[in-house]
Amino acid sequence: MSSHPSLPSRATQADPGGAPVSALPGVGPSLVETLARLGLERWQDLWFHLPLRYEDRTQITPIRELRVGESAQVLAVVDAVERSFRYRPQLRVALSDDSQATLVVRFFHFSNTQAAQFEPGTRFVCYGEVRHGAQGLEMVHPTYRRLAGDAAVITDDRLTPIYPTTEGLGQKRLSSVIARALERLPGDDVLELVPEYLRAPLHLCSLREALLTAHRPPAGASVRELLAGRHPAQQRLAFEELLAQHLSLKRLRARVRHHRAPALDGDGALRAALIARLPFVLTRAQRRVIAEIADDLAKPAAMLRLVQGDVGSGKTIVAALAALIAIEAGYQVALVAPTELLAEQHYHHFCAWFTPLGIEPIWLAGKLTGRKREAALAAMAAGAPLVIGTHALLQEDVVFVRLGLAIIDEQHRFGVHQRLMLSEKGRVGDQVPHQLVLTATPIPRTLAMTAYADLDVSAIDELPPGRTPVQTVAVSNARRGEVIQRIRSACAEGRQAYWVCTLIEESEQLQAQAAQVIFAELQTELRDLCVGFVHGRMKPADKQTAMDAFKTHQTHVLVATTVIEVGVDVPNASVMIIENAERLGLAQLHQLRGRVGRGSAVSSCVLLYQAPLSPLARARLQVMRETTDGFRIAEKDLELRGPGELLGTRQTGQMALRMADLVRDAHWLPTVQRIGAALLHDHPVLAERLVKRWIGGAARYADV
Ligand code: ADP
Ligand code: MG
Fold it and tell me: pTM higher than 0.85, yes or no?
């Protein structure tokens, strides 16, 4: 890697990129403040503040060819105008064009002058998003302009960039500031940070050209390519952005890796004792992953390992064995789960496994207060070997004396920050605890490479033997009666069923209320069966009672809110009914379905939906029927939803990409890894500048 040609001289032109925005003409203190809210402080922040999308006003679309959900520009004549004040003031304008089709345009905020413009017979050019309205297609608050007499329509000759912005800063003003910054854009000899010898084989267009094109697409540029993000200029920027993301995560990883940790190599006695008592044999995948973990733990450098395994692949026992390695070596272990229900379930499993070994797990959740909490804290401070709980473990007054290993279950609900927080908690001098992260949401490989570049990954890619794939059907709510009948016959055969109620509202209270209604309905419909009920707002003890009753087969059907989404394990349950399945994302559906198919009986999952289905919902239900493979589902999910949602809200901010799209631009990732490695090795200073350029302002999350 040392035979590369030397770099061109960078002294030819000074880099003005670091100049403050206030040095631009017309940018006063109040605008500086507004721009700062967007993380725009230096000229280069403006150069790299790329359009979110473009509006295409280069052509006129006949109304007949409009498509719902797309934005378009139409040229039409006013047929009728109507003002109403029923619930709120409203202006409705019916327009038609040469294609003999009509479009309704609606305004909720308008002045009298505006309303008066829409005289029947006058011509307007309107641009907006097309929606389904009560009377056919409509646009709400389009931008519009009136055409005088029979003046010819002038369409734009280029796309209009739309920038991410903030309150009090309109597109026009922001565009003009960016334009002023772009006038000061230096040449490529200053702009390019990836050295020529690495760049040349990729045949990229120049960075200067890429930036100018992205901000101000020239008249001749392919509109289709630009709208799709596939223009060479956009691809050039996407590549560089992915490279910067990758480098920043690598840097974070290097920093954590740099931390020292206690070398944990116990004698294996506790592990052997637990394995001897298990009612099953570990799968090959489980044994391999445990060996990988043991290898890491034995080293005096901090482990940061992600264990991926599909729902039901048996991650809990892997976590338990990892915990024993640390305990054998005389260190403490903390196990953190995202929900209280899941933490409780772990607590019960670990008690059953560890108590016979002479280890009493400590319980610590947010709801634990008073003396019990004090007792738990005191036990931890006295060096109790294992503590299990929710994120309450991350609170300030929680102190460990010898934390050797932190295990975090269901990683996608925690962010990088929380991971680091737990690691800081256990810091003693220059030593931090090892970290093991378990996730049941398989992360597509492409995403793992960027979002989780700070972690090593182990995969439990094999399910315990004897599992049969869950059969999945989608059934309209109109056929609810048949579904209830299906439950009746399954329970008659000694099986058990979950009925999961979902609501789009985030409120647990509303969820609980809706579930209560269904609970009452099923109690009436299934008189001869025992129906149980569990929801998030119950007292932990009541929750546990309901779960225990289901586990011990006293209840046949368990009505539940999505509290049972993660981790709940009752092997005899073989029917899963998911209410309002059309509202849920693939990851959540997969999690819920994973609650069944854990025993030897053939399991089934009914996705109950309310017609009509949106195209997206239809696509999701189709995926669920086609496959039970978590990795395929995750890839599909990424395709359908995009990475932000897949990683959960906490991750969204971190992965907010400006230009790149992890699905569309996944083809860059191998190149990004290769160039990233070369850059870090040969030009660490340039790598650093590249990260600073792209990951600026609010997104400087990696600088913790
Ligand atoms: P998840 O990976 O979803 O967390 P769990 O750890 O809850 O899965 O395991 C699911 C079920 O499989 C549990 O009932 C567990 O006891 C059982 N199990 C785990 N490993 C094996 C194995 N090697 N053979 C048989 N059953 C296993
Ligand atoms: Mg689990």
Answer: no
Residue 561: closest CA among 616, 510, 489, 488: 510
Phi-psi region of 480 (alpha: psi -120 to 50; beta: other; left: phi over 0): alpha
Ligand 1 in reach of 540 Cβ (< 6 A): no
Neighbours of 83 (CB within 10 A): 14
Residue whose pair of structure tokens reads 């044994």 in the numeric block:
287
Q: Quick one: pLDDT at residue 476?
A: 93
To which residue do tokens 């797990």 refer? 361
- Quick: pLDDT tens for 35-51: 998 889 999 999 999 99
Residue 642 CB neighbour total at 10 angstroms: 17
Alpha-carbon distance values, 356 to 274, 275, 347, 543 (Å): 9, 12, 14, 26
Q: Is 275 in the pocket of ligand 1 (CB under 6 A)?
A: no
> Based on the number of CB atoms within 10 Å of its own CB, is 281 exposed (0-12), middle (13-18) or buried (19 or more)?
exposed
Residue 49: helix, strand or coil by DSSP? coil
Contact by Cβ (8 Å): 394, 426: no
Q: 311 in ligand 1 pocket by Cβ < 6 Å?
A: yes
How many angstroms separate the alpha carbon of residue 390 from the centre of ligand 2?
Answer: 14
For residue 301, how far is its CA from the centre of ligand 1 (angstroms)?
Answer: 30
313 ligand 1 Cβ < 6 A: yes
Nearest to 646 by CA among 662, 627, 626: 662
Contact indicator for 598, 469 with CB cutoff of 8 Å: no
Query: From the CA of 316, how far away is ligand 2's center (Å)?
Result: 6
> What pLDDT is recorded for position 701?
35
Q: Which residues of the chain are under the pLDDT cut of 70?
A: 1-13, 253, 256-257, 396, 411-423, 441-454, 503-512, 565-567, 641-656, 696-704
Fill in the amino acid letter for 624.
M
> What pLDDT does 547 receive?
87
Domains of the chain: 59-155 (2.40.50.140), 257-460 (3.40.50.300), 470-627 (3.40.50.300)
What is the SS3 assignment for 556-614?
CEEEECHHHCCCCCCCCEEEEEECCHHHCCHHHHHHHHCCCCCCCCCCEEEEEECCCCC
Reported as half-sphere exposure (CB side, CA atoms, 13 A), residue 494 has a value of: 5
Confirm or reject: Cβ of 599 under 6 Å from ligand 1. Answer: no
